[in-house]
Model the fold of this input.
Amino acid sequence: SSNPGGSGWSGGGGFKNSPKLEGHGQPNEALKQERRALPIYPARQQLIAQIRRLPSAIVIGETGSGKTTQIPQYLLEAGVNGGAAIAITQPRRVAAVSVCQRVAQEKNTTVGTSVGYRIRFEDATSSSTKLIFMTDGMLLREAILDSKLTKYSVIVLDEAHERTVHTDVLFGVVKAAQNCRLKTGLKLLKIIVMSATMDVDHFSRYFNKAPVLYLEGRQFPIQVMHTAEPQSDYAFSSVVTLFKIHKEAPAREDVLIFLTGQDEIDSAVKQLRQLSRDMQDLPKLLILPLYAALPPQQQVKVFEKTPPGHRKVVIATNVAETSITIPGIKFVIDCGKVKAKVFNARTGLDILRVVNTSKAQTLQRTGRAGRESAGTCYRLFTEAQFGEMSSNTVPEIQRCNLSSVILQLMAMGISDVMTFDFMDKPDRESILAALTELELLGAVEKISESDMPKLTPLGKRMAAFPLDPKYAKIILLSQEYGCVEEVLTIVSILSVDDIFINQMNKRDEIQSVRQKFVSSEGDHITLLNTFRAFKSVNGNKAWCFENFINYRHINTAREVRKQLRDICSCQGIQFSSCGKDTENVRKCLAAGLFLNCAQLSKQGDFTTVSSRLTVSIHPASALFHCKPACVVYSELIKLGKNYMRNVSVVDPEWLQEVAPSYFKQKKVHLMT
Ligand code: ADP
Ligand code: MG
Done:
């Protein structure tokens, strides 16, 4: 996967037991009005009465009807939780934090009191928190420690239609917990599955025919426009389309643009701000980006009232598809693309790739235009292209690397992962690929063909880390290599968003400033050097600015490092440092990343050992101009070519030593 945790995280406000965010003063009459005006409000009594008597329920309602922000509050107000905590899972951490802040505001309280959130490495809850918004991945980790989830009386699996791997696994885990609690006479566990799409028979059947409660939606007519021709550059088309709207429609009507990722969004924002400065005669544009890595203060700006005479334009990833509802939107511009993980069971690799949206996703995006009044959706693709889209998104579990999830399931004591009660089973091949990877890493052992694979003591320890198994192993191994501190630093940085700031127009300046950190050993040691320098100036912000280092990201890495260090302490790991001699760090990386190794080919490219893929070193790498014989890498990305990112030079002999049978089986002769 792309980084140690699979999905990356970036710091928000606080971390573990984070500082309480500010409340919003006196009870706010306007907020109360807003709550009462939501489509869900008239249905609340009936809804709660039904949920009260049902062990499981499926709730369906159009995005923006109030499911996420209201139902947890209703449950609490009606005492359905019986005093215990209610967990509400979200596929995205942006949504977990933003929704939690909103609910705290509505309850006129501060985050971390009765309402809190928990995302990886950030815990804004206290012992008295009753509504806990968390990522699905967090709840899954809690289930490792307590498979019956005894702390909770109600679990709300929100945004179920997204079908992330973690939500899919949670379906099975909470269902098992519910059964188990029933059998052992513990307090009942109530399960509520919430979805924004209608195809829910599947959910209902899976949860023992749980009744489906429909919320009356509020949807105004939407005019849908397609392009006449396929668009080769959808980002550019979105800019053109926006200005067409801006010239024709009154300024108070806001626009939501769907693009695929941070870079694309940032450059569109820049371009639009520039263009709108040049067009003095038109009303002002308030252009706001929205994606996961954005600082929370900037995220909440999309909810603020648009100043008079301005038009708000939000440029978002698919986080705005269903997870976050932005008020005031009258126009949607949909590029018809989304960034998705694509897994190849043969190569064992997850690749993040821009793919077409499904019809269901397209319809969700269109729907964002008609929430408050009639609207228009401009699709940057033809009607024929729409016709060719698949009708539903394939659940992530059927298209991503499962090694991390399988390790977690096994750590929960579920030994027979092949027969685990998945709502939609992943391919047998993908499960086998994951088990093989775990076996090669030493986390799993198989005594004989007929035996069930078993978690090894090493595997159990690996599962304690909220990281991709490879990186958990590297941390555990670092004890033997005497470089725990260094490895912790590297893994922490790999887990956050890029700490380096790259600006095309300042490329030469950046390169010369960065030179002092660059190591001929590769990117991992370069990251280590950078962090060491950062520490030596006591995390100085101005220093970061001068050195083109993202202050927020490197600070997040520092926080993550603290947390990982705590886990190490709990695991009884002895801390050690290798000082200047970083060869052992690379040995250790080689021992954990041997599945990600590539050799220089005669043609001057590299070839991966695992799948004989032709790859190149990423231009941003410290090794871009070098031709080492053998390297390990942290991730592969596909940008036309396949690029390795975060690459380190290794000695082939080291690899041979750590996994002799693997290299033999691959029939690879590692040149020395
Ligand atoms: P659902 O889960 O059904 O999609 P939500 O409960 O997320 O609906 O949203 C209900 C309403 O609350 C939306 O209309 C949205 O505009 C508003 N809302 C949600 N979060 C915020 C926020 N952080 N700031 C302002 N309004 C918000
Ligand atoms: Mg919601």
